[in-house]
């Protein structure tokens, strides 16, 4: 059957299906082969470098978090614990955290925002593996399923994310900064932010959705400024100096200020809610806000086919689902036991424990080996 002519209605759909076939075809290197071909690598090698930096950065962050947590646990077990900032192990975790965040920062200079931001799922799923090694936590079936879904989503994201390669110069940032799309977006974002902040501060509403929506709105500004600063530094190293333009320092100020307030609101959320709830919701909200920011400010999906966008969004959904499965019920595994074990008490059996009274708030008593039933007179004498 002959392919439709360029002017016919089915031409666009046929072109998209051809592109999908090329993306999923694995064979010898050469033009027209799929995502393992030399042509695909030559077209996407800059993006792949950014993806590799982001994945490694997120994995290093997951290792650093577990190292810091391990240092706190080890310090708590000591008879005379030292302050955590005097621990060499804790500082090692901080250095790894800085390296991981630097990798993420540099990655924004080589790949689109809509490709780098969703890769934060690698930090959450990687933490499930490193916690087994450092904290001796159990690897659950939901962890394995979640990591599988996250990897599948990451594969779809890398293959179907925007394929544009932008040279982020100071003039490019200035052009996008005064564009009508960004102006409308910022007006709406500031309006929503002020309304939510009013309910949070004046009305005392501490719901997790309100707090993490405020964090996500700030995160969209952070992502835009990080991409601009990283892109201009990359352009300065590879082509022409861009650090003399005022827009570079404006973006640096926006990046630092938005990060500070973002961390402050996120700390409030972690104080009010457990980590197993905050982490997946924050990841989903942050990723959605970053994708919207990349689409509006940097116009990263301009001219993309509908089917490509659909598969990209499906990859995001798989990564979100993977993060939820990995973090689900994780805090409940570390709840303290519902009894107090006194171990070997003289004259008592080793299995005797103080159990909370199920009918009240008081605790029960240990059996002393004598008759468990006493007369009322004996009880009065005992009192």
From TrEMBL:
Membrane-traversing stretches: 46-67, 88-110, 116-135, 144-162, 182-199, 211-235, 247-266, 278-298, 304-326
- Coarsely, its chief localization is membrane
The root-end lineage is: Eukaryota, Metazoa, Chordata, Craniata, Vertebrata
Q: Which residues form the signal peptide?
A: none
Q: Give the record's membrane topology.
A: Multi-pass membrane protein
- A Pfam family hit: Mg_trans_NIPA
Record keywords: Membrane, Transmembrane, Transmembrane helix
Q: Which residues form a coiled coil?
A: none
Task: Family membership, please give it.
Answer: Belongs to the NIPA family.
Task: Tell me what this protein is called.
Answer: NIPA-like protein 2 isoform X1
Q: Where in the cell is it found?
A: Membrane
**Region listing for Disordered, in residue ranges:** 355-383
Among InterPro entries, the record links this protein to: EmrE-like, Mg_trans_NIPA
Q: Which domain of life is it from?
A: Eukaryota
> Which organism is the protein's source?
Bos indicus (Zebu)
